[in-house]
Design goal:
CATH class of the largest domain: Alpha Beta
Number of helices: 11
Shape: elongated
Radius of gyration: 19 Å
Number of domains: 2
Distance between the termini: 40 Å
Strand order of the largest sheet: 8-7-6-9-10-13
CATH architecture of the largest domain: 3-Layer(aba) Sandwich
Largest sheet: 6 strands, parallel
Number of strands: 13
Helix content: 25-40%
Order of helices and strands: EHEHEHHEHEHEHHEHEHEHEEEE
């Protein structure tokens, strides 16, 4: 199996998780396309996962097949078709065998709850377990930067955060809030005139990821980084997660995260 890695850490985890569902004995992760973005991406998976814990072969190599993006161009739905994209993922994932496969997609909106739950289970096995101890208070993730430029912050406008914070205050007695963000200036504009006690925490991708997963109470952006930080974090013993139900405008997320309460509930 070859998986073409694209996007940032959250997207890369979705692509890896989708590959695991096919139960192959050998996986090639091709990260050659990560440098093609306006905001240059890097292969972050080795910083977060220990692949030696798996009884399978994982290699990071460039494949000429990935360059042509055949799964995206020809998303046929034959049961034994080798090129897997978001459009034919559900059909092909139900016909698992040891045939050659090339995966090229984001593998997010195509997931069922069962798919996602299995991915979480498998990924937790290899997660490099350096999480912080469970934290008191409520963590809020605000994604700025490229999300604002793309207009994807429209999924989580100021009103979303106001409602989510009020829910945490009134229903769950949360009074202290901690902000994890890639854009403090944008975050201050979102939090302006919201009467809460908050402070910024975190200062690197690695620290931010594990901090998000260490709080029992979480308010998330639509970022796949935040979704995976929460899903792979500390979720035993209760807690509450509020997250938007879209990945990007118009692209729904049908599965729930551990301990999630829908923001419109």
């Amino acid at each position: 199996m070859i998986i073409s890695l694209r996007g940032g850490l959250g997207n890369q985890i979705f692509q890896l998780g989708a590959g695991f569902l096919f139960k192959q004995s050998s996986i090639i992760l091709d990260d050659s396309a990560l440098g093609n973005y306006d905001v240059k991406r890097e292969n972050e998976l080795l910083n977060f996962f220990d692949f030696t814990k798996l009884d399978l072969s994982i290699k990071f190599e460039t494949s000429i097949l990935s360059k042509y993006r055949l799964p995206k161009l020809l998303p046929f739905k034959f049961s034994k078709y080798p090129f897997v994209s978001d459009k034919n993922f559900q059909i092909l994932s139900k016909n698992i065998n040891n045939r050659f496969l090339l995966l090229d997609g984001y593998f997010q909106a195509c997931l069922t709850q069962e798919n996602f739950d299995e991915e979480v289970k498998l990924l937790k096995i290899i997660l490099i377990n350096k999480q912080f101890e469970a934290q008191d208070g409520c963590v809020i993730h605000i994604r700025g930067g490229d999300f604002v430029k793309l207009g994807w912050n429209s999924i989580t406008p100021k009103e979303y955060y106001i409602k989510a914070i009020e829910t945490m205050q009134l229903k769950y007695n949360q009074t202290k809030f901690y902000i994890v963000t890639d854009d403090r200036i944008y975050s201050k504009s979102v939090l302006d005139n919201i009467n809460i006690d908050y402070k910024f925490i975190g200062n690197s991708m690695y620290e931010d990821f594990h901090l998000l997963g260490s709080f029992k109470y979480r308010i998330l952006s639509a970022s796949t980084f935040a979704l995976w930080a929460s899903a792979l974090g500390v979720n035993d013993g209760g807690g509450v997660v509020i997250a938007p139900n879209e990945f990007t405008p118009g692209i729904k997320r049908d599965f729930l995260l551990p301990n999630e309460r829908r923001s419109n509930a």
